[in-house]
Amino acid sequence: MxxxxxxxxxxxxxxxxxxxxxxxxxxxxxxLAGNAVxxxxxxxxxxxxxxxxxxxxxxxxxxxxxxxxxxxxxxxKFFRYGDLGEPGGSEADRA
Length: 95
Hints:
flat; single chain; mainly alpha
């Protein structure tokens, strides 16, 4: 019963974050909502693992959390510099 309440609360959190992601109003609100969706999804995977007794879902939750962090850092870099950088080495390597 307690797990059902936690899952329901996380699903409500997901719905609210998706509403914020679609409505905005700024791009930063959308980025924060995307990060919240990733975190809530990771928690749902961890709860599903505990209820089902399958430990591989913890690995999936951890990988999803790492991808969420990498995506957030890439989005912040894109907002700051306008692109994600040049492929290859530094300027001195190309000269």
